Amino acid sequence: MKIGVDIRVLMDEYYSGVSQYAANLLNAILELDKDNEYKLFYNSYHSQEKRLNIWNRDNAKVGGLRIPNKIFNYIYQKIFKFPKLDEILGGTDVFWSPHFNFTSLSKNTKKVITVHDLSFLRYPEFFNSRKNFWHKALGINKTLREADLIIAVSENTKNDIIELVGITEDKIKVIYSGNNSVKNEVNKSETDKYLNSHKINSQYIFFLGTIEPRKNIIGLIEAYNKLRAKNESLTDVKLVLAGANGWKNKKTYRAWQLSAYKNDIIFLGYVNKEEQDILYNSATVFAYPSFYEGFGFPPLEAMTYGVPVVCSNVSSMPEVVSEAALMINPYEPSELANALEDVLINESLRNILINKGLERAKFFTWEKTAREYLEVFKELK
Asked: What are the pLDDT digits (tens) for 54-70?
């Protein structure tokens, strides 16, 4: 069987979220499946030779175009529906898109698309006008209706697809993501050097995610303010926030500047994998009060490192963390503050959460995810 894969998400400068998902899953599929032939489509105006070479294997070959994305997406794919991506690759039986994109395919190939979340339909107010325009231009409803099968990364995402788009349940299959993280031990001197360079020299509450409204960082800052004001014994606990800048975050930074404890709130910006290893390994507790997640990798990653987790009790997060985290209402900063305080001062609770988290993290593997995808491809042939 010839299986096409849209790897345009792997042209991102930094891998996170969907691009990290696609890279890890594709690698697991290619390692497992030596029988089928994989044809990987890319488009990038700039040379991506180094990034693409790793995907050329005995069972996989990369093919594509070098056209500016705006021209290729809006003119070629959206307006003219040409060229057909499967035909560029020499024909495919099944074509898998690991994310929404402008995609024109011929009628004789089966279409599979992975949906991570529908936050842009559920909460359009969390996005700026440019993002909302992009989502509208993609024609999500039409794309999902034309697919032969939709893979949802959680039951929550599946329910959103049914409710918000009107897709029937029999067309959707839930396949949980794997675990992006493997715990890497870090050198103590390198750890001390990194943390000291950012004035992180005590216990800290850690958050990792894009700085955008959906992540509820304002609520986390408010909870931190309440925590510090309530318990004087926690004056040495800092709040460390890592992640690239997203959109509509002026209010977030204003909340930081207005905090009476702003000198103990540290924004690190984007952090690479080595820096993430250091931050997870050294964190006292991981906080993730997001309003909405299609899956939510960071809490799972924190559990892998043996960090107790406090996260929201909404959307997909209860599915992911199960009973291995303290869950709170993200709209109640006081509830978050109390949960963080419990974890910080109650050693017994910390140990329970750490042990449960380590066990829960083992449930999610990319090999398991890849095997379920292979079954889907096989059934569609």
From this structure: 999 999 999 999 999 99
The number of distinct structural domains making up the chain is 2
pLDDT cut 70: percent of the chain above it: 100
The angle formed by the CA atoms of residues 159, 162 and 166, to the nearest 5 degrees, is 165
Say which residue the tokens 């309440």 belong to: 226
**42 beta partners:** 64
Q: Give 47: exposed, middle or buried? Use CB within 10 Å, 0-12, 13-18, 19+.
A: exposed
Average pLDDT over residues 143-156: 97
Whether the per-residue pLDDT at 381 is higher than 80: the answer is no
Q: Which residue has the tokens 């939709």?
A: 150
Give residue 95's pLDDT: 98
Q: Are residues 269 and 230 in the same domain?
A: yes
Tell me if 227 sits within 8 A of 341, measured CB to CB: yes
Within this chain, do residues 252 and 350 fall inside the same structural domain, yes or no? yes
What is the residue type of 200? I
7 and 144 inside one domain: yes
DSSP 170: G
* Distance (Å, whole) CA 241 – CA 206: 6
> Would residue 147 count as lying in a domain?
yes
Predicted pLDDT at 16: 76
> 166 and 243: one domain?
no
Mean pLDDT of 325-336: 98
Domain of residue 35, CATH code = 3.40.50.2000
pLDDT at residue 110 in the model: 97
Decide if 183 is inside a domain.
Answer: no
Average pLDDT, integer, range 266-276: 94
Nearest Cα to Cα of residue 214 among 292, 294, 131: 292
Dihedral sign for Cα 153, 154, 155, 156, please. negative
Residue 274: CA atoms inside 13 Å, Cβ hemisphere, count?
Answer: 5
Q: Give how far Cα 188 sits from Cα of 139, 237, 306, 317, Å.
A: 50, 20, 17, 32
CA separation for the pair 130, 124 (Å, rounded):
11
